[in-house]
Write a structure and sequence with these properties.
With 94 residues, the protein is α+β, with helices and mostly antiparallel strands. 36% of the residues lie in helices and 14% in strands. The longest helix has 15 residues. The chain is globular.
Amino acid sequence: MNNRDSPNHRQAVALRYEPKQDHAPKLVARGSGFLADKILDLARQYDIPIRQDKNLLQVLSRLDLNAEIPSEVYKAVAEILVFIYRLSNRQPGK
């Protein structure tokens, strides 16, 4: 087992974005190992789409909880939101 496959190396973050309430998406959870597994399990349980992006994860995992994402990653997060809206046939803000 290499370092990337070890249980302590797994990482996950979760974002929340309420267009009528938030100026930008916010980090609402982050963790590694068991906590990362729990974040992913909850996402699956509630049918929340999961996206893997190692570079974005590195940036987001450094944020404080409830912090808005930095403007440098707006484009990457916007692409993910479009993907999610298309999956759920939702319109932003509804």
